Amino acid sequence: MTFLRRTIPRLLGLAMFFVGPAEAGLAPGAPDLAFGAYQRGYYQTAFKYALKRVDADSHDAAAMTLMAVILWDGVGVQRNRAEAMHWYELAAKLGDLNAEYALGMAYITGKGEPKDVKKGAEWLKKSAAQNNAGAWYNLGVIALEGNGVVSNFKEAAKDFKRAADLGSPDGAYALGLLYRGGRGVPKDPMMAAHYLLEAARGGHIAAEVEYGIMLFNGAGIPANEEAGAKWLLRAANHGNPVAQNRIARILMAGRGMKQDKVQAAKWNILAASAGLRDPWLDAQTSKLTPKQRIEAQQAIRAYLGW
Fold this sequence. Notes:
mainly alpha
């Protein structure tokens, strides 16, 4: 398993946070027509409502951010990232946490603006100060990346902890890996398992794999093959090749789950199609009867929706 993805996963396809009427500059009880239209996929309508709001109130940061998102993604309107950055910057200067986050990521990734990690981090800190979990997580990634040579694991752990406390599965996953490796925090398998489980419960697929393997093998925590297999099956159904390989081995051996060679062959073939070959599983699959081979192919087609 890799220690941590060296990319910043939650970039500028900004997941808009719901804002109430007061935060959106609307009268109490008034519906947010712009955001409502955006949620339903009526992007042109959303843009028009947001623009109308900005024309009426030059301090409506939420409307500015919504316009920036639409322009950045090019949904309903022609993509224009320079114009999107203009609105993000205006909204960020008014204190909108989503705009601060987007602006920070634009500088960090060099998308929309020349790359400037230091400047981007400053915007992320402003967003993080308003309890933006994604901002805390990405500040942790920056701390890990350091200057390209030296990583600040202690600072990363603090940032990931803040993200995890705010409900970020990415933050919980990253913190779990730090506890498992003893980087920036004391090595503690139980704490690693705690945060990996938290991330897995939040739908983090890599965490489902990591926690499932820890639980199945009893790596630093009491072993529970049946529970570990369930997490690996969940990740396998999410398309993770490592989980597909592990669940194939589990089903072929009949450990943690009832032996099912047809299903084992299915998962092995799916993992192999993603580039994860397993000679032992291949050998076991070759021993299937013609009927079992047909059933395995049928199971694959059903899984893929063919």
